[in-house]
Specification:
There is one protein chain. The protein contains 3 helices and no strands. It has helices spanning 2-15, 33-57, 59-65. It is elongated.
Length: 66
């Protein structure tokens, strides 16, 4: 779902649509589209690292080596 939302943000940003609020956290505060896009890319990268290297980065695997 986050990937789909990211695609929607990207197309709106590239088309130059005047979106002032993505509605993510209510109407009281808002980030620009490019900021939301970059934050979501960071989340997607963190999920990828956790899925790819999670077993090597776990505390159990670190303690088993010692």
């Amino acid at each position: 779902m986050l990937v789909f939302f990211e695609l929607l943000l990207a197309q709106a940003w590239l088309r130059g649509l005047p979106v002032t609020n993505c509605g993510c956290f209510g109407s009281s505060s808002s980030n620009p589209l490019w900021s939301e896009f970059l934050l979501n890319v960071i989340w997607l990268a963190a999920v990828w690292v956790a899925l790819r290297f999670g077993s090597r980065l776990s505390l159990d695997s670190i303690l088993e080596k010692n």
